[in-house]
Amino acid sequence: xxxxxxxxxxxxxxxxxxxxxxxxxxxxxxxxxxxxxxxxxxxxxxxxxxxxxxxxxxxxxxxxxxxxxxxxxxxxxxxxxxxxxxxxxxxxxxxxxxxxxxxxxxxxxxxxxxxxxxxxxxxxxxxxxxxxxxxxxxxxxxxxxxxxxxxxxxxxxxxxxxxxxxxxxxxxxxxxxxxxxxxxxxxxxxxxxxxxxxxxxxxxxxxxxxxxxxx
Length: 215
Known about the structure:
The protein is an alpha+beta fold.
């Protein structure tokens, strides 16, 4: 292994909390509460109706429909569905956590409310954040070699909420977000643990002490 002094590429852009709250205040009165449990899959469109989802509590994992690859995790508060504003079908699903609380309303109604209250600026802030998250995913998938991907995802996991880190094993987190084999992931993690680069307890990430650039 060789050393590296920086991890700047792993910093996440902060969520636009104020803009999300403005949108929540306007949209929530028209949204219908949903009954979900851990693993519930939510579609962006059903019966030819596109939906806007409000995440009030907990988190959801955004998965690619064709292969189940996990793209990102979003924690409450957050709003989903604006990807359906384009003509291209949205090939994504939302997978709810055990403690997730969600509601939804038709996307057309959501856009009418946004127009009525002139909430274009808050919407643009949310869309910019979503674009940033997509860029993060692309950066992750373009890492050279297995170790580069594992390293990136370890830093990404360290930035997730504490509740999420306690609910997801390191191996599952990395495997669901990459095309690496389970055995390959475990081999890299085992070497990092022996070198005291990371601390894992009961399969969950406890801390990152230091990760070199190359393996």
